[in-house]
Amino acid sequence: MRPFATLLARLPRRADDRGRVVLLIAGLFGILGMLIVGGINVTAIQLARLQVIDAADAAAANAADAADESSLYTGGVGSQLTLSDASVRQVAGATLAREDLPAHVLGWQVVDGTGAQDSRVAVVRVSAVVHPPLLGGVMSGLFGDVHVTVQSRAEAHVH
């Protein structure tokens, strides 16, 4: 009987469990809070990404109409507009400059890869810096800024 009594003495009594449940609940709420903050930040970044895609689509659509003027005077219009890298970059940049920045987007710009593909298709690449709404400063300090880069294509046909 003596080993059983020793074992019983080692087991925690019910009165010793008080306070441990509070720690578990606090840990649960801490994890739950991190999940909520993370979900809100990821959703905000995805929404900002969609708005950057919309801006890139608008810039590509405008750039597809930006015919290279030198080719218009020498070769005429033809069935498709002839684009140049310079005209696509200029019109895409001007279109982005006119657009209002979406929420949580700190800035955006037309980046390398923007130009005229085969002199027919306007390809616009836009890179944006997104600031998460909750604890964005802490996240930026720890992990750096969130960069979103999107690409859009557009082609104009002459009818």
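That was protein one. Protein two is written in the same sequence-then-structure order:
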Amino acid sequence: MLRWILLASIPASVFLGIEGVAPFSRWSLNSLLLALLLLALLFLRFEEGDYGAREVAAVGALAAVGAAGRVFFAALPGVQPATFLAVLAGYALGAEPGFLVGALVALLSNIFLGHGPWTPWQMLAWGLAGASGGLLAAFHREKRLLAAAAVLVTAWGFLFGWFMNLWFWLSFVYPLNWASYVATCATSFWFDLFHAAGNLAFVLALWRPMADMLRRYRERFGFRYLGNGPDGISLPGNPRERLSGP
């Protein structure tokens, strides 16, 4: 029921904003509401998902490392490992855990760097970066996987900036048209370029060892459902990893 309310609220908020109904016509407020609704919907999906303690532990650990890394590199404009770790989590754990890692990195690191109306947008941007990491599971050869990861993570250096520019554009720029949005993106070009270059450096230096580590974690702590025991008692197992019985 809650999911349907959230789903219905998103187009309703956009429609009321376009029609100029107060307070939805104030896009600085409406865009924040939309970001919060999307986050609530996506967190609810994860909460209702069938994830075990292993996935939750991995998500928490990667989010903590990503937040610490972002704070550590805060002095370098645009350079931080959050995007790289979010995409890596999406590849190793799946799109939904990847989204959660990216969103939590923004939430945790902003405890030190400062929360504000930009936080939900950062959570969405890095969450989407993490979810896109699930696309890399289609690459099985190591060289192609590394090349695809480099392209994807580097591209997110610019995509993240354009996404955050959308928040800035809706909140502080007038008039709202394509020309003003392109001008807004042009002002952040060098920050986005540094972000993309930093992402590429993290992929080239850390992708292989960290991807191998997460693969070993997944293989070591994953197990399969092999059917009922000799006394007809069901053996425990993660339903997402179950196979059909013998």
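Confidence is low (pLDDT under 50) at residues 234-246. Keep this in mind for the problem set.
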